[in-house]
Amino acid sequence: MVRNDTNDENAVTRALDALTFILNDPLRAGRFLDVTGLTPDNLRECLTDPSTLAAALTFLEAHEPDLIACADSTGHSPEALVAARRVLEQPR
């Protein structure tokens, strides 16, 4: 059984890694911005907002090949990325 211990700090790190993965591909980045309604300017402004970070992980979850590719690229398991999203979505 894989453990997915995720605290707030780990969740933020995983989400930022995932967001970097998304933004490093122009087509994927464009889809992310289109789906979320974010612009490059307001994305910069809310990079540390848990809801923005959770949106990046939700975006990857919606298309399993992207989630798997992100996991391979970042070294975080798909399960750890999903667990990070859950942590980020918890009320503060």
Top keywords for this entry?
92 residues, mainly alpha
Short summary of the structure?
The protein has 92 residues and is mostly helical.
How would you describe the overall organization of this protein?
With 92 residues, the protein is mainly α. It has one domain (8-87). Helix content is 74%, strand content 0%. The chain is built from 6 helices and no strands. It has helices spanning 8-23, 26-36, 40-45, 50-61, 64-74, 78-89. Helix 1 (8-23) packs across helix 6 (78-89) and helix 4 runs antiparallel to helix 6 (78-89). The longest helix has 16 residues, at 8-23. It is globular. It starts with 7 loop residues before the first helix and ends with a helix.
- The SS-based structural class is mainly alpha
Tell me about the largest β-sheet: none
How many β-strand stretches? 0
**Average pLDDT score:** 93
Which secondary structure elements does this structure contain, and how are they paired or packed?
Elements: H1 8-23, H2 26-36, H3 40-45, H4 50-61, H5 64-74, H6 78-89
